[in-house]
Amino acid sequence: MKTKFKAKYGGNLKIHWQWNVILALSLIVLSVGLFWVDQTAGLISLAFTAFYFLGILWMYFHYKPRILRELVSFATHYGQVQKQILQEFEIPMALLEPDGRILWMNNRLYELTEKGDGYRKNISTLFPEINRGILPNSTWDKDVHLRYKELDFRAHIKKLSLNELLDAVELVEREGENNYLYMIYLFDETDLNHYIIENREQRPVVGLVYMDNYEEVMERVDEVHQSLLSVLVDRKINKYFGAVSGLVKKLEKDKYLVLLNQKSLNVLQEDRFDVLEGVKTINIGNDVNMTVSIGMGINGSGYLQNYEFARGAIEMALGRGGDQAVIKDDDKMTFFGGKSQRNEKNTRVKARVKAQALQEIMMTAENIVVMGHHFPDMDALGACIGVYRAAKAVGKQAHIVIDDPNFSIRSWINQFRENKEYEDDLFISHERARELVDNNCMVMVVDTNRPSMTECQEILKQTKTVVVLDHHRQTTERIDNAALSYIEPSASSACEMIAEILQYFEGNVRLKNLEADCMYAGIIIDTNNFVTKTGVRTFEAAAYLRRNGADVTRVRKALRDDMDSYKARAEAVRHAEAYMGHYAISVCPAVGLETPNVVGAQAANELLNIVGVKASFVLTEYDNRIFISARSIDEVNVQIIMERLGGGGHINMAGAQLYGVTMEEAVQRVKNTLKEMTEEGAI
């Protein structure tokens, strides 16, 4: 007996046939209407309607099995086509279980991984970058970049929910609410990454190379050797940049313009711009080595903007003392070199020009407010006192911002307050400074060039006239739009710089004994009794202060320590650790000390007296932070070490402050930094 295919229409096909029947029945209504108008027309219409209705019924039952068979056949072949398309799809794909185990892979992925059809291990066995922790949970898709067989891929992982599918299958009951699989698509980005890297490497780079001390070196070389020295330096620079296909153009006798690409710059970064050391090795009898500074501008919109970046970079390099390379990428700067001590300039032309400019600015201001850095020391206080005397010399009122003087300067401030020759408002608080400063007021910052380190940062934005005077090297953080900026890293102290400026003020500024003592004390502290960073101009400044009444005995008595400070310093020296054989690291106890950070700095100086110590680092816990005092003599640049830790300072006297760390963590951070920089060749 022949068995027919039994099934019913459903979905849109069922609706289609239902509407055919409804339309056929509507013709009956039309026939009845026509019958009332004309019986003959109504009978003809009714006969046609009956014929049409019977025809639809015959077609429905006659073609129904055939249509259903065709639909089933199409669905069967369509599923096979879909499966074949997925299996032969050019993009490698895989279906994963929630734990990352492979359920299915298409042919392209089998070919790529060279695995058989039965490979069902975890996906991490093929691609370690894709593991259970990397699979998307809270999101529905994620991209993971990986490398496989020297090819770069972007793996797009898509989360597939199975809840609806399992609900539609009566034979399976799902457990829980989160049933899902992962679909992975691998997109080959090897060529794309290659072109991206190639494009990045071909980006233009503009550089400027300046000889730091050209005039000073040439003055000490006889005329016969001057041209030879210039040619040797010129050859060294051209050969160095020519080795990486760089174009060098000499602009002036001591300035060069360099054009190269990013790939060449990467090579120079790898050798840490060893031309800096190469130039210093040139010696034809000159007793002073030639040094160069390099400024590079990158990632600008073109050559012009890169040139502007290079100018900013070379200014930063020179402001930090020269003998270093600076790469400027918009607001980001990277530093190389800067290991050697900057030679002191014998000329005072710059000091004279800055003194004249400062005097003119002071004369146009109604009030003058001067401040140093947080926790001001003797150098900051002495410099502020010197500025006060300069302001009085031009007939202006000056105020010094010190909110809470620490122990090291409190006795000096009390002497000024008790002296009737000084105004009661010589020293003002932060609140009073904010009330006093306006656009007609001049704010002068001494002994720091970083706005975040100033005593009262808010007042810098309350005036248009800001003057900066400092002897520390510049960092990427600096006071913008200063009307006058005098930063001289070769100076021993801010007091030395102020003493020089006062000598060029019109009217022969005369310091009082207490003021001269204060400035003299500032020089002594920063030079460690004229041992560290002391040059000819340092002694000339000290001589000027002596002529103005500074007394060595009074200063020495004023700088004496109390017993607790002396014991703490000795304790720090006693427990010092020799790290890597050359670095002394110690912790200064803070119990019973009012200013342990000052004692820590003194202990760091003491450790330099030990044979074999190239640099010392003393850590002190004070005011919910860790203070690091770093000192060296001439072999290690502690400034670049402290910059890695967020601080700064001089080449042989620097510091940093760490927040939110324990003392043990801080010590370990110092050790890690020393180890990393030694391995990099940075120190």
Structure description:
There is one protein chain. The protein contains 22 helices and 23 strands. By secondary structure, it is an alpha/beta fold. The chain has five domains: 11-87; 93-197, PAS domain (Beta-Lactamase, 2-Layer Sandwich); 204-337, Reverse transcriptase/Diguanylate cyclase domain (Alpha-Beta Plaits); 353-558, Alpha-Beta Complex (inorganic pyrophosphatase (n-terminal core)); 564-680, Roll (Diaminopimelate Epimerase, Chain A, domain 1). The strands form four sheets. It has a six-stranded mixed β-sheet. It has a six-stranded parallel β-sheet with strand order 14-13-12-15-16-17. Mean pLDDT is 85; it is low at 1-5.
Overview in brief:
This protein has 683 residues and is of the alpha/beta class. It is built from 22 helices and 23 strands.
